[in-house]
Design a protein that fits this description.
Helices cover 79% and strands 0% of the residues. By secondary structure, it is mainly α.
């Protein structure tokens, strides 16, 4: 049974986002009381996004074969994250992330951890697509 690579990207996204968020928390200059419950909030948001993303991926798996469609799916997952975060926190964290200094910015940590994860996964998609295209070109030459 072949595993759809979009499912793998759906699994990597919350893991990377939580990892980058926890790295930011460990480097933060905020007191423990201010950031104590934030990992739980991020975990809940990521679980909700993962559930929605996996459902959509399984429903649309035949359409998520082209690289362009995979990139669109990943960008939709990012916006799902921001929308769910908006429902959970009551504010658009992406817009608030530029108002405070970097090490004291919880809103920035929410958004930038997700953006960095998205960029890494997009790079993986493009590298995989480039290797697949290179393999196809080499097979046609032989």
């Amino acid at each position: 049974m072949k595993i759809n690579e979009m499912i793998v990207y759906c699994l990597i996204y919350p893991i990377l986002t939580m990892t980058f968020f926890m790295i930011w928390i460990s480097k933060s200059t905020l007191a423990g009381g201010e950031i104590g419950m934030t990992p739980i909030l991020v975990g809940i948001v990521l679980l909700i996004v993962f559930g929605i993303e996996m459902t959509l991926t399984l429903l649309l798996k035949k359409r998520l074969t082209r690289t362009r469609n995979k990139i669109i799916g990943l960008i939709i997952a990012f916006f799902l994250y921001e929308i769910v975060m908006w429902f959970m926190s009551g504010t658009l964290v992406l817009l608030e992330s530029f108002q405070e200094p970097f090490y004291e910015n919880i809103s920035g940590a929410y958004s930038f951890s997700s953006i960095i994860s998205l960029i890494i996964i997009l790079i993986l998609v493009l590298i995989k697509n480039g290797l697949k295209n290179k393999k196809n070109v080499l097979q046609h030459r032989i």
